[in-house]
Design brief:
The complex is a heterodimer of chains A (95) and B (526). With 95 residues, chain A is mainly beta. Helix content of chain A is 8%, strand content 39%. In chain B, helix 6 links the parallel strand 3 (141-146) and strand 4. The chains are: A mainly beta (95), B alpha/beta (526). Chains A and B meet through strand 4 of A and helix 3 of B.
Chain lengths: 95, 526
Amino acid sequence: MASPVKKISKERKFWLKVDCELIVYGATEPDAKVTVQDRAIKLRPDGTFTLRFALPDGKQFIPVKAVSSDDIEERTITPIVSRETKSSSFIREKV
Amino acid sequence: MNKGYLCLILHGHLPYVRHPEHEDFLEEDWLYEAITETYIPLISVFQGLVNDKIDFRLTMTLSPTLISMLNNPLLQERYVKHINKLIELLHKEIERTAWLPQFQSLAIMYLNEFCKARDTFEKYGRNLVNAFKNLQDLGKLEIVTCAATHGYFPLMDVCRESIRAQVKVAVSHYESVFGRRPRGIWLPECGYHPGHDEILKECGIRYFFSDSHGVLHGTPRPKYGVFAPVYCKGTGVACFGRDLESSKQVWSSIEGYPGDYDYREFYRDVGFDLEFDYIKPYIHPDGVRINTGIKYYRITGQENHKEPYIPQRAKEKAAQHAGNFMFNRQKQIEYLNDFMHKNPILVAPYDAELFGHWWYEGPQWLDFLIRKISCDQDEIRLITPSEYLAENPRNQVITPSLSSWGWKGYSEMWLQGSNDWIYRHLHIASGRMTELVKTNSDVNGLQKRALNQALRELLLAQSSDWAFIMGTGTHTSYAIRRTKDHLLRFTRLYEEIKSNSVDEEWLSDIEYKDDLFPNIDYRVHQ
């Protein structure tokens, strides 16, 4: 006789979906020039900024560079973020 | 050498959904999605063919409800707001997908498409009917009409006055929009009932379409099957039967082209896939997730796992499928031509919204097909029904049989357990409308306004879309609500007209809400 549990498992529609995003945010002088990964970004009037990225598996280096409006001073901060996704699944036997 | 004809028909229709009483209304998105994904891509394809001097013929229905929505200033304004919001989302998406180049290139592709859609919409003065009209005036497109609100005729046979009203309102609406009378009609859901051709004849309609079995089961049997039109006995109105083979290649979910694994997956949309707070400004204000039209995956296979969409690969597949479709039609025509004493015609009708909305690559496929037919062969000629009848005026006379398209082919999609309750109410309302016309043949002022509105409400209640939606089991609450709302408004009007006590304030309110067919004359319902 076939296992009733296996039969049920074929008909089940249970599912799970997980994804990750990364929010990079910060602040500087409102008139500074800012780049993230070498791409210029727009600051809010108060000098703050927020960027949102879909985060794939692997390591991301995210250099954030700000240059003062008179081009004299420069600051760089580089968050390094890595994502590794593992998954497993099993079907519990009904008691 | 020309051996036969291909008559491609796109049936463009949406039910009348316009809710000025709400700032944002979920079901109005049906129109906005169709504008971006179907009507504008089709206009671009047709315009490209004209620019490249490719001679083509295509037949298209623009249903009166669809035209009324495309013409409507409120919906036009709301569409611009809708597309602008999606363009804003796409700018965010390009930034968000910076580390996922396959998705980022798709976000850029959609941004270009949506900006182009907005430009095209503005170019035609926000009224896409102008674009289709231009193509008709150029002789490339033949626009046929449809029932006023897409009423399903075989189930309205008990009250032919309503069928007459559906056709007459449609014809006069067409005339006011296109400046000429329609030559043909798309009977909603291909629903034909013997005798309805008398009403078509009375309204100056020369031809209609039926599903294959409408012609094949006619009396007497048609000599050439569906490969030549027939004239209805007694009226001479021509009936073109659908060719099953060419339909199946596009329609079938199993064998049809749209299911190819390289094509875009419809059911994976960022409106459902992305994090709630991020997507919230772009879905329904109540938090109900909706399709945005931004879809990053290809069908991939039967399983839930989906791979990123690759536009170039899909485009190559569309070209290949167009070639395959043309090859099959050539073989079909060669075979038929051998034993028919005239050139066969293959009638291939599809819902316009299949192209672009459901089948994203559909407009590309159509573009490739028309170009290949024009440049790569000389056996098949694209033709419209009017041209065919002008060139081939001698056709067999039969009485086509009762038939529809859709599930089982005999009305069942529109008459089943979930929707059968509507008909007794619709039939009583039809009878009451006839009674109102008989007893108020010449009235003016408020009574006349109320009578005209009563006909609008009745027509809106008769839309086959409500029964169809109830039958499919999705959005049923809206379909039920619409049926009840229009019937209740009609009933109140009936009672107020009979007692000569029309509430003007309420009448003005429903005239504002259900505002289509401004020149309607209630006396057509007889």
